[in-house]
Amino acid sequence: MKKTILTMCVVLTFVFGTSVVFTGCRNKSSDNNTTTEDTSENASTSTDGTSAADDAANAVDDVADGAADAVDDVTDGAANAVDDIANGFDDYGDAHDYLLSRLGKENKNAQYEVRNETKDVTEYRNGAKGYHFEIYDTSDESGKKYGDFYVDKDTGKIYKKDTKTKKIKEYNSNAQ
């Protein structure tokens, strides 16, 4: 969702900047003519000594700089997300968001909720440590428990506790 919003902002910024360039938008007052016409070269120059072409070029540069900044922001965000997944999670919030995002991709009709939150790192299997989540599906009125999940602090892998055997196994969903 954040990528979609950011993409729309970049597109709208580009469209606005392009429209400014093509319309030649400049501040002109009706009381005071701020341009002088040079009949020998048919060039117009504003009172500050810049031409309309320079103004347009500056507008294009500003739009390009803004778009480059937006791309840098998206790239930084993506790099941080990849870093979190590849190198584990340093905080509960990132692990929480990652787990709910993965579960949401698996079943778009479900609405998951975390209950009995413990934001501390816990040992869940053979010395492995991570964050524990009790996930409930609240898409219907039953609010059934979907399962106990762990997000490994070091690897970022998701594990689920088997309700029958009580063993904790790596969680594999169809949606990645």
- Uncertain runs with pLDDT below 50, 5 residues or more? 29-46, 81-85
Number of helices: 3
Question: What average pLDDT do the residues reach?
Answer: 74
Tell me the span between the first and last alpha carbons.
17 Å
Q: What Rg, in angstroms, do the CA atoms define?
A: 28 Å
Number-wise, the strands total 8
Overall structural class, as computed from helix and strand content, comes to alpha+beta
Largest sheet: 6 strands, antiparallel
Strand content: 15-25%
Task: Give your account of this protein's structure.
The chain is α+β, with helices and mostly antiparallel strands and 176 residues long. The protein has two domains: 1-23 and 51-87; 92-170, no CATH class. The chain contains three helices and eight strands. It has helices at 2-23, 52-87, 92-106; strands at 35-38, 43-46, 112-115, 122-125, 128-137, 145-152, 158-161, 168-170. Strands 3, 4, 5, 6, 7 and 8 form a six-stranded antiparallel beta sheet that branches. A two-stranded antiparallel ribbon has the order 1-2. A hairpin with a 5-residue loop joins strand 6 (145-152) and strand 7. Helix 1 packs antiparallel against helix 2. The chain is elongated and about 75 Å long. The model is unreliable at 29-46 and 81-85 (pLDDT under 50).
